[in-house]
Write a structure and sequence with these properties.
Layout (H helix, E strand, L loop, with lengths): L10 E4 L4 H16 L6 E6 L5 H14 L3 E7 L2 H11 L3 E5 L9 E6 L8 H8 L15 E3 L2 H12 L7 E5 L9 H7 L3 E5 L20 H9 L2 H10 L4 E5 L6 E4 L5 E2 L1 H15 L4 E5 L4 H9 L3 E5 L3 H11 L3 E6 L3 E3 L9 H15 L3 H4 L5 E9 L5 H15 L3 E3 L4 E4 L5 E6 L5 E9 L1 H19 L2
Parallel strand pairs: 2-3, 2-4, 3-6, 7-8, 7-9, 12-13, 12-14
Antiparallel strand pairs: 1-5, 4-5, 9-10, 10-11, 14-15, 16-20, 17-18, 18-19, 19-20
Length: 463
């Protein structure tokens, strides 16, 4: 039986993804699509991990043997494949990548017709599908090649106006973003300082730190990319903006002209304000882990915040459900979704759109973010995977009986208080821990609230 990944990686994912895994997924995916359409068209692309080309070949050949038509997109960022699926009318897509994770991992991300990831319901259907590869179609499918990188670049350029000339530092993290982001910016007249722009199978630049950032999403980036190096480069070379992508370019993190990191929640707010001011939709989709900063900005613009569980796939699903009323969706991890391009998080589009916003607002990046009173803190407690659900159920019961706040259960347990402070306790999708996040106005209030959430969690775990 196929095993699907956590909320962080939608699709098959892990250290043990093999050629057999790819073939079994090909069988399940083909049978899933053939129930709805004859001779479905599937786009397949991959990143540059050493195992990715072979996994892509195994997936393509299996899909062909089951009667699917297949377009080989070759080496490409995840959002490039997703955007091509949507714009060129494919029935589904698959990207061989483990995103921002270490090179010993790999995975297969699945895309719907709109570019968004497969839902949990779809994955459950695939996981229960027979994966025997013995049934071969009497009429094999046809294979072609698609330049997803050029298509994605064209879609981005068509979606933005002419940009003012400025110098921008782009760190590709040795990932696939170098196939799209530099091309888009060069054709827009931007002067690029390109860092780590050649793909390498050793893309993951991990080094351990003590999570110095108060913003959990920024702290995560500090573990997977040399953010401090990029900040110094932006500052000393007087760039107007800096941006870094993860391995498959579905994320972006921004550095202002002073060399300071713009938090993920602030970036969601910036994109949301622009979308609400220039588009038709009035709803902004983000997760329960995003800052209250998002609510303040969106409500000031006359919009409404819709919160989902953590994970860009959940954000995509809600945007799909809301349709034209959704103006924008994103989460603090650096995953930003622009529905006009696709429902896949899109790092290259995010960079181009951020530059468009700077021109629209006629200001510097640091001026897009006002002084913030909200302080967000995060910590975690060990919790074995097999007892996570019971631990969360204990937290729910304790919160309802002992905490004077509004309890919501979208993802774990979130408690909102009358002063607009809140804390969130939820199980990690990738580690044997419970994640605890707290936000309040001022550092002392945030620390106090975090300690309250820690005590609540620790007591319930001892039951």
């Amino acid at each position: 039986m196929l095993k699907f990944g956590s909320s962080g990686i939608r699709g098959v994912y892990g250290k043990d993804v093999t050629l057999r895994t790819a073939a079994e997924l090909g069988v399940a995916l083909a049978d899933h699509l053939l129930k709805k359409v004859n001779s479905p068209l599937v786009f397949v692309g991959h990143d540059h991990r050493s195992s990715s080309p072979a996994l892509a070949a195994a997936l393509r050949s299996t899909l062909l043997s089951r009667g699917c038509r297949v377009a080989d997109c070759g080496l490409c960022p995840t959002p490039a494949l997703a955007a091509s699926v949507k714009s060129l009318g494919a029935n589904a897509g698959a990207t061989i990548t483990a995103s921002h994770n270490p090179p010993e991992y790999n995975g297969i991300k699945l895309h719907n017709e709109d570019g968004g990831g497969f839902s949990k319901i779809q994955e459950r259907e695939l996981s229960t599908s027979p994966t025997s590869n013995s049934r071969i179609s009497l009429v094999a499918g046809e294979e072609e090649s698609i330049d997803a990188n050029s298509k994605h670049s064209s879609l981005i350029l068509e979606s933005i106006p002419e940009l003012r000339r400025r110098k921008v530092a782009i760190d590709n993290s040795w990932g696939t973003s170098f196939l799209v982001t530099p091309r888009v910016l060069e054709e827009s007249g931007i002067d690029i300082l390109l860092l780590n722009g050649i793909a390498s199978s050793k893309l993951y630049r991990a080094f351990k730190i003590d999570r110095p950032s108060q913003d959990s999403a920024v702290a995560e980036w500090q573990e997977i990319a040399r953010i401090n190096d990029l900040c110094e480069i932006v500052r000393t070379t007087k760039c107007g903006l800096g941006a870094v992508h993860d391995g498959d370019a579905d994320r972006a993190l921004f550095i202002d002209e002073r060399g300071s990191v713009i938090s993920g929640s602030n970036t969601v707010s910036i994109f949301a304000k622009f979308a609400l001011s220039t588009g038709n939709g009035k709803k902004v989709v983000t997760t329960v882990a995003a800052s209250k900063i998002v609510d303040a900005i969106v409500e000031k613009c006359g919009g409404e915040v819709i919160r989902t569980r953590v994970g860009d796939s959940a954000v995509s699903e809600k945007i799909r459900e809301l349709g034209a009323s959704a103006a924008f969706g994103g989460e603090p991890s650096g995953a930003y979704i622009f529905p006009s391009i696709s429902l896949c998080p899109d790092g290259p589009t995010a960079v181009a759109r951020f530059l468009e916003i700077l021109d629209w607002a006629n200001c510097k990046p640091s001026q897009l973010v006002g002084k913030q009173k909200w302080v967000m803190l995060e910590t975690s407690l060990p919790c074995a995977n097999e007892v996570k659900q019971s631990a969360i159920q204990n937290v729910i019961e304790a919160a309802k009986s002992s905490v004077r706040g509004e309890v919501t259960l979208v993802d774990g347990v979130r408690v909102d208080f009358p002063d607009l402070s809140w804390f969130l306790i939820r199980p990690s999708g990738t580690e044997p821990i419970l994640r605890i996040t707290a936000e309040a106005k001022g550092s002392s209030s945030a620390r106090k609230l975090l300690r309250t959430a820690q005590r609540l969690t620790a007591v319930t775990q001892r039951r």
